[in-house]
Specification:
- The structure is a single chain.
- Helix content is 26%, strand content 29%.
- β11 and β12 form a beta hairpin.
- The C terminus is likely disordered.
- The chain is elongated, with a radius of gyration of 24 Å.
- The protein is of the alpha/beta class.
């Protein structure tokens, strides 16, 4: 069975700037995926390519096993909530739902109605609060009964109460539809509560990809006396190095347990792990001796 979302060497260029470059990933079926990364990492571009709003510059992208631009029928199985939940502001809530019902052959009135119990069908979209517009946009996406649901910064403009309600509605809807979900956000706390899989984009490429529990199990903080670093048994990669006085702290990806007693080994939280991969901090490299300046003698 094909992954719900798969890319191979995917790239998207806007004039001279690459928003994505050599991006290869495969989203596991049934997962709730946190698509993390700093602003400008390419998260929105990736989702725009998935829903055929953008065309790749290079490489390929497949949604539910199909090319979304060459086989637009694939979009019927895809739900998408763009940033700021853009909707027709002159429509009423009822008009919006009627339009969605008429344009989606598998429309499920029951799912949409359950999410819209607090909204009157006569209310105009222009008069809705930010949280109410987010609720309506989510109802439209889930009402399609999508196999893949894509959300782009869904919590960005929501207050804490509205964000909590949106999250609860999202998880209830996902349980009902059994959709695979991709939530793009630069705020790690937004996705940490729900994601069981993480894809971290940085500089337009995939920096980290894996199940949350497996990623946390394979990374540890090592603390010990500051010293020249050699081979550390069990360490496959040093992601970040920090020193403070005589203390050295490493964030390491392990391939087996570290048994060297000179290192203190501690677990790491997901937020700290992702931040380290976004902007790794390494010890400065030794600088060569500065050569004496040439002086001009008249």
């Amino acid at each position: 069975m094909s992954p719900p979302l798969e890319t191979r060497a995917l790239g998207k260029r806007f004039r001279r700037t690459w928003a994505l470059r050599d991006c290869t990933l495969a989203i596991p079926d049934g997962a709730v995926v946190g698509l993390a990364g700093p602003n400008g990492a390419g998260k929105s571009t990736l989702l725009g390519l998935a829903v055929a709003l953008l065309a790749p510059t290079e490489g390929e992208i497949r949604v539910l096993g199909r090319d979304p631009r060459r086989e637009p029928a694939a979009l019927a199985d895809l739900g998408y909530v763009a940033q700021d939940a853009p909707l027709y502001r002159s429509f009423t809530v009822g008009d919006t739902v009627d339009f969605a019902r008429a344009t989606n052959p598998r429309w499920d009135d029951a799912i949409a109605a359950e999410l819209l119990t607090r909204l009157s069908s006569d209310q105009r979209v222009s008069g809705l609060s930010t949280g109410e517009r987010a609720r309506l946009a989510l109802a439209l996406a889930l009402g399609k009964r999508p196999a893949l649901l894509l959300l782009d910064e869904p919590f960005a403009r929501l207050d804490p109460l509205a964000a909590r309600e949106f999250l609860q509605m999202l998880m209830d809807g996902v349980a009902e539809t059994q959709a695979t979900v991709v939530i793009a956000s630069h705020v790690i706390a937004d996705i940490e509560r729900v994601a069981d899989h993480i894809v971290l984009l940085s500089d337009g490429g995939v920096r980290l990809d894996g199940n949350v529990e497996e990623l946390l199990a394979s990374h540890r903080l090592l603390s010990g006396a500051r010293r020249p670093l050699g081979r550390i048994g069990g360490v496959a990669e040093i992601v970040r190095q920090r020193h403070s006085g005589r203390q050295l702290t490493l964030l390491a990806r392990l391939d087996r347990p570290v048994v060297d007693p000179s290192w203190s080994v501690d677990e790491i939280a997901l937020e700290e792990l992702l931040l380290a991969y976004m902007a790794p901090e390494r010890l400065p490299k030794p600088q060569p001796p500065e050569k004496g300046r040439l002086r001009w003698h008249a």
